[in-house]
Fold this protein.
Amino acid sequence: MKKSKALNLVAASAALFLVCAQPASAREFADIYTDCGLGAMIAPNNGAVAAVTNVTWDSGTTAVSSDASSAESCKGGKKKTAALILDAYPQIERDLAQGSGAHLTALLTAAGCKTQSHRELAASLRTGLAASVAQPGYSTQTRYDQAQGMFNQLYERVDGEFAGACTGA
Amino acid sequence: MTLHFLIPAVPHFRCAVAALCTMLCVAMPAAAVSADELSDAAVEQLAAHWQWQRLLHIPQPGRISDIRSTDFFLSEHGRTDAVAELRATLRAYAAPWDGQPDMHARCRFPARYRWLSRHVDLPGYVHRDTRCQRFEQWARLDQLQSISVLLVSGYFANPASTFGHALIKFNSNQGAAAGLLDLSINYGALVPENEWAPVYVLRGLFGGYEAAFSDKLHYTNDLVYAHTEFRDVWDYELVLDEDARELLVMHLWEVVGRKLTYYFLTDNCAYRIAELLELATGAQLLARSSVWFIPVEMFHRLDDAQRRDHRRLVNAVRFVPSAERSLRHRLAALAPAEAAAATQGIADGAAHLQRTLQPLPEERASAVLDTLLAYYEYQIVAGGSAVRPAVREAKDQVLRHRLSLPASEPVAPGIEPLMSPAAATAPMEVAMGLGHATQGPPFMRARWAPVSYDFASFNGLETGELTVMDLVADIDMHGVVRLEQLDLVRVRKLTVNRMPLPQESRLSWQARIGIRRELRDGDKHTDEFASFGVGRAVSWSPSLLGYAMLDAVVQSAPSRFALEPGLGIVSRHANWRASLALGSRQDIGLRRWRGHLAAHLSHRLSQQESVHLEVRQDEQVRTVLSLAHHW
């Protein structure tokens, strides 16, 4: 009985660990999304005035504008890359599929990666995207989910294999 | 400092004297006078300087600032009193630095102090104060290579965007990232979501909105204009020396986020940007008054200023095609077998790509898949929330196949640059001519159209027409003026894509609201009307297109309703335009068809002048030869 209780305790702890063990980058993306008001560009705000683009009806803005008008916690680095991925996901996705493109280059630059590393990093990200796209349900994922996935894949590499070539900006 | 930096003549003598004094003062080398030594008269003189007025956004001497945000002013009377604001700015310069250096006036208003340093000895002044870290991080002056103003093409889907848009972009050396991470500065009204259209129109016209400059990484604006609204952009890289460039950047730092009042016709994006360019370059872009100031007008005035002042203001103009144009180009670049594969892939929802692409070499299969990805990106954006899940699934099928093939080397798109709208004639047209009618004496004709982009002019939209307030009046031999025609608005959108997208609608449309005067049963009648028509158009070559339309007409006379089928051909060459239109109006309830034929031949004499020959036959034949001036 004691042994089974111990086993149950271990199993329960393991389960709890698994539930709570969200990847750090996933938490980070979620925090950035919430704290920095991402998503305004692809989903309308609720009431707040946002559109400053030639009185265009259906364009919005992202709160992570620049290093000036945004709060201290929403400047540069991962916040910039998170916003770029979320806003320009279709373009980055296409650039990765082709192997190159302006939005992909912008993403790697925003992540603080040296130009010499872009080709190899892009190839690695391309492999990651292929794995994501191969998963059933990819087409029905929300933009948030897809962007989070790409963000995680990017920083797994930026903080790992490509740490020497990227600052994370 | 040379005299061409000055705003020209003011109407009243006393103002003229003041202006003369200002001219003399700024024509002399700046004498470094200490702020403490400035006399009241000297302070007032400085405050009256056009650049100080411009820095405060005072539209004319004696007026209040256009900026409504109180934190833009250091004096509580700063908005209404340029002298008080100057004094407060000088006092704030000497304020002690505390724990928040970025909040010091020298960091909040770097442009003011940059300008003041030319006229006043500011102790310890440096062009770039390292204590202003927020400004330095924002401006990135060390990486800034140039500044561009962008002309965004018109957008029919939004009336407020019909006349195009303008914004500012900083250019650093971003190479393959195409400047997407550079800052771009936009100006526009702060419009609440889901604003009711009539309210939107009225508030936009009559100053019901606040407006502001916003600073965004350029990719956000690029996504909106090029990838969502599918608008082309012309990037005008400005000629600015380092001092002018830094002054402009510093002043943008001062005004970003400040609130102004938005007026769609006048104090709009183009007007505000023109103010900024005047500050930086000294070129007069706003001196000539206008009924309105549409974005392309600013670029015409840049060109005018270059000619007038014999100086270059624009280094180069770069065409940035929209995502839609890039897609059409990709489709057109496919070989027939590749195009057939792409069409088949779209038709079957990308369900059999393996089989469809199997005959093609791997490299060409990749090109087809890249084209399909661009096609689906376009479809998904254009479809918005109404995009069917099947479209997304098809896109992802294409994506899976493309990712299974090797990456491609980047290839330059090779899209033929489109001429900037500002390189064509200006939109406002005034014309005078002589006319002859088979029934009646000769006459003179006068025409005025503040916005005229039509097939007969040399600034026509690529596949359409847009004319606002087109007024035509005839003057008989006795000097009696009669309204011949007034088109409040005339719009024509022809879908003539020579590189059509699969499953794309080919429908063309046109609309017109106005007043016409016509000969009926021996008498002249003036009728009000509104018409809307649909049809098809075809382009046989880049210079020749034709269309067939059927209009439904609501009119005041001779009957309430009418149908009006019509055919037209338009031929466009560098300095010649020709058009022929045939039509016939069936007035419902009256057993009569009223046929008409109109032929028009135009020749461009210069950037501003053109000559037109028009022959119109309905109940009579009228021929008019006129000379038009565009400005």
